[in-house]
Specification:
The structure is a single chain. The protein is of the alpha/beta class. 29% of the residues lie in helices and 19% in strands. It has helices at 20-30, 43-46, 51-59, 99-108, 127-139, 170-183, 203-209, 243-249, 274-282, 312-321, 343-350; strands at residues 12-15, 36-40, 63-66, 75-78, 89-93, 116-120, 145-147, 151-154, 186-190, 213-216, 220-224, 233-235, 257-260, 287-290, 293-296, 305-306, 329-330. Strand 1, helix 1 (20-30) and strand 2 (36-40) form a beta-alpha-beta unit. Helix 1 runs parallel beside helix 4 (99-108), helix 3 runs parallel beside helix 4 (99-108) and helix 6 runs parallel beside helix 8. The protein is globular, with a radius of gyration of 21 Å.
């Protein structure tokens, strides 16, 4: 339930726990509130990079005061002054750290005097997420958004109430779809169809290139294992959250899989290249770190206890791995509560190899 654009006045302390997306979006939102807001999280979140967002909010006129190191939580935010005419303000942010930072600025853009112009100082990663942001903003009445190669522009405006149906999470859907590729049989995800806005919905196409059968309707996506899987070379810069998912499918292919373009995921909830490779090697998987990705050879050994490194995506990927590799134990399984609290119940319904 919204508040008609009137945010609760600070002082307020907001705890994002382990959620990087939440912390970044809320930090930007506080910059158009009233009073002081402190944003914090659990220790792993305090290590994640926030400097580009804090720098941008400072450029826009907000007061930004970290409790410890610049660019990290906890941070105190005091709102951007409401005066300043109708001049569109310009900020410069890197495009290769996290699209969440750009999305956070886009979301508050209509409520800034004159809107905002976001100039990208480096190539943009995860571009599909910005397209989702623009589509959602437009549905709520803020349609003056332009996404170009090196700049994003948002005009002033206001959000309007509407009925909006939220698609199923394509990132989470990757795990049951991967289970079909790993175990055989088929999996259908309902309400995630060929018209999805999400770039991660294209994970089914990746599995299709590896040899799976894929069928889509406007409301469903089905993946079916069709014989042997083949490895592939793929740049996953625009599908980076799904690197762990593809990494646990790769050992079951007949040829190597090489994932590139994702060096920036070392600064996610975990080091999603280094930590992922080390944990896979515990199960006898040949996983080699690259500067910007990972290379995985066919084959695996026996399961053992795998650490999640406080990362829900590693935990869920290792769960899929355990469907085929006996003896896999996932440490701290509760970390999945961040995005899919009932993940383990879902996994139990899939069963093992067919």
């Amino acid at each position: 339930s919204g508040t008609g654009g009137l945010l609760c006045e600070g002082p307020l302390r907001l705890n994002a726990r382990l959620a990087g997306t939440t912390s970044r979006f809320v930090t930007a939102l506080c910059a158009i509130g009233t009073g002081d807001y402190e944003i914090d999280g659990q220790p792993p979140l305090r290590t994640r990079p926030m400097a580009p967002l804090h720098d941008a909010l400072l450029e826009l006129g907000a007061e930004v005061e970290p409790a410890d190191a610049w660019g990290h939580l906890p941070v105190r935010i005091r709102a951007i002054p409401r005066s300043g005419g109708a001049i569109r303000q310009t900020v410069t942010v890197p495009g290769d750290v996290s699209s969440q930072i750009i999305t956070a600025l886009m979301l508050i853009g209509p409520y800034l005097p004159g809107g905002v112009r976001i100039e990208l100082s480096s190539p943009l990663v995860s571009r599909p997420y910005l397209a989702i942001t623009a589509a959602v903003m437009s549905a709520f009445g803020a349609s003056d958004v332009r996404i170009e190669e090196a700049v994003v522009m948002v005009g002033p405006g206001r959000y309007l109430a509407c009925d909006y149906t939220i698609e199923p999470d394509a990132s989470s859907a990757s795990y049951p779809l991967a289970a079909a590729a790993v175990c055989g049989g088929s999996v259908t995800v309902v309400d995630l169809g060929q018209t999805s806005l999400q770039g991660d919905a294209e994970f089914a196409t990746v599995l299709e290139k590896m040899g799976c059968g894929v069928s889509r309707t406007p409301r469903t996506t089905t993946v079916r294992r069709n014989g042997d899987l083949a490895g592939l070379s793929i740049d996953m810069a625009h599908m980076s959250d799904l690197v762990p998912t593809l990494a646990v499918v790769a050992p079951f292919a007949t040829t190597a899989t090489e994932i590139t373009g994702v060096g920036f995921i070392r600064a996610k909830e975990s080091d999603r290249i280094g930590d992922l490779a080390r944990e896979l090697r515990k199960c006898g998987v040949s996983a080699v770190e690259l500067d910007d990705g990972i290379r995985i050879e066919p084959g695996f050994g026996a399961g053992t206890e795998l650490e999640t490194h406080d990362d829900h995506r590693l935990a869920m990927a290792f769960g899929v791995l355990g469907l085929r590799v006996p003896g896999v134990l996932v440490g701290d399984p509760g970390v999945v509560s961040k995005s899919w609290p009932r993940f383990w119940s879902m996994l139990e319904t899939i069963g093992g190899p067919r």
